[in-house]
């Protein structure tokens, strides 16, 4: 099992492919108008603020 960042896969090659897919936009994108809202809530860093 390999883990890196938000990805957990069976092989290092799968991790590398996941990063390529992520950076190419294969997982979708966040509309520019919503990016500041998501960042303020901590979702970008993976940390959710209380309340």
From TrEMBL:
Pirin C-terminal domain boundaries: 2-28
Coiled coil: none
InterPro entries (UniProt xref): Pirin_C_dom, RmlC-like_jellyroll, RmlC_Cupin_sf
Signal sequence range: none
Record protein name field: Pirin-like cupin domain-containing protein
SUPFAM superfamilies associated with the record: RmlC-like cupins (SSF51182)
Native organism: Nonomuraea fuscirosea
């Amino acid at each position: 099992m390999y883990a890196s960042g938000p990805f957990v896969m069976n092989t290092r090659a799968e991790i590398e492919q996941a990063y390529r897919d992520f950076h190419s936009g294969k997982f979708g994108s966040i509309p520019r108008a919503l990016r500041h809202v998501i960042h303020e809530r901590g979702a970008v860093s993976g940390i959710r603020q209380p309340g």
